[in-house]
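Box 3.1. Reading complex inputs
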Amino acid sequence: MNEGKHWLVRRRSIRALWIVFVAVLAIVAVGDVLIHGHPYFGLDGFFAFYAWYGFLTCIGMILFAKAVGAFLKREDTYYDGE
Amino acid sequence: MTASSAFPPALVLILGGLLLPLLRGYARGIAALALPLLTMWLVWQLPDGVSLSARFLEYRLELVEADALGRLFAIIFAIMAFAGALFALNQPRVAELAAGSVSAGCAIGIALAGDLITLFVFWEVMAVASIVIVWSRGTEESYRASMRYLQIHLLGGVLLMAGIVAQVADTGTIAFTAMTPGTPGTWLILAGFLINAGAPPLSVWLPDAYPEASYSGTVFLSAFTTKAAVYVLLRGFPGVEVLIYVGLYMMLYGIIYALLENDMRRILAYSIVNQVGFMVTGIGIGTEMALNGAAAHAFTHIIYKALLLMSAGSVLYMTGKRKCSDLGGLFQSMPITTLCGIVGALSISSFPLTSGFISKSMISQGAADERLLIPWFLLAAGSAGVFLHAGIKFPWFVFFQKDSGLRPPDPPLNMRLAMVLFSILCIGLGIWPEPLYALLPYPVEYAPYSVPHVVNMLQLLLFSGLAFFIMLPLMERTLTITLDIDWFYRTVGKRVFGGAATLTSNLLRGFETAVRYWVGALIAFTFRQAGPQGVLARTGAVGSMVTWVVVLLGVYLLLYFV
């Protein structure tokens, strides 16, 4: 099944990529302990602020876009009759 | 003032561009590449201050006036003209190359204009050149898109012209200096500038028109109009608070619409609005740090956005397809395009070691220095959102995701060279930002590479990436577009004006019929009375004439004696 597929899209490679990705995520999150940042507002001084703030705002933006799309999405042939 | 500096650099690209269609083959290619280089050299030679002026009516036009800010933009516009021409060398439609050169020249003219009249002339010619770029693709869609573009930009031009007239009447001078909105003139000028920047409510002109140009035309378009607008806002309205909110809106608008979009180049067009939003926010913050950041970000943005659109243009050129739902798996046969696309995507996301990192962070720093709580948090969310919609979504859906089965090779040599050149610039500026910092309008006291900054940025971006892959099922591409303000003028407006046009033409036709009827009746009546057979044209005998004269004289005598 995997023969002839590009090595990057084989199931095992994708698994390996996920493992590496999660490891990198853990390292940069834990890296927060080692640095002494200089928070500007207080809230950004929380542990791994940038990690969870980026994650949550992205989820929020995707969901918000879905909500907007529910009202404003149309077939891409919508304007074809112009 | 030397002889070379007296020649306006903008005219090299404008006049040279107009001559390009007369050349053939290699000569045209060499000229197209040499003109931007010559322009860059001329810009480099310009001394500070006015180097060329002329009298017009009772005003003194400052046709060429250089300072750090103007020179920075003129240089990046010339670099862009070079790479754009390189990418477009195999474009058979020479009108596009000529118009691209003219629009680059106009952008440089704007960057070096010392007064509002010179600015306005270049501003309008640039709009016309951009229309030619869209229209030269030669399809029905591109023609219609170019007409919609024309209408919006005519509106912007009218606002700007009215503003300039009011401003000159108020102040008595045509000098282009920093203004504060307060008078009708300054508000109108600001509105004219903002329309070109892609600000709300008319942001849609940009994602509507740019993706309708050819594979190489969109690359030219992405650079000049919006960044010339950023330049004039930087010079004309630094520190105007309303720009913070306009910019933040543009930033979020670009993300939300790009997340919903299926057309790969329209994703990137929305992301232009998003990126210009960062710059406009920086201009609104208005400190030296933020203004430097906005200027630097315009510089790096032109390079990585052109790079992204080159990689998308290469895919379009090789496959003829533009929808994410038709693409995927192209990394296997287009390695150079994929790699360059990823470099552009990382740069726009301001990944460490790329150009976006050393420019965008100055804007956030400006917000932090001023303790602007909400703008700072929104800018951080926006940075995460950029990675989401342009940093991952674009390369993922075009080059990876499912295998579309398409196996096109990389594009021709000139297109590959243009992409590689801009990739090198993206990474080069990311590693070695000092040359760019030295060109900025204010002294730079900023070190982008501190350990906390790098770690924070990596956290923000990588966890945004995690969010993308977790939410991937919600991101699946559908064959849809998303309605925007243009719906009003493409449907309701069209119907209203179409209805008004039908009504007017019916009324006119009715009026014409009525006029024809009555004029005809008048002619017929006159003809009956005075025509050959008419009462007034009859001839009588001399005898009866004499008889009637006698009768009249008799009546007269009678009346006289009574």
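In summary: Chain A touches chain B at residues 6, 8-9, 21, 24-25, 28-29, 31-32, 35-38, 40-41, 48-55, 57-66, 68-69, 72-76, 78-79, 82 (CB under 8 Å).
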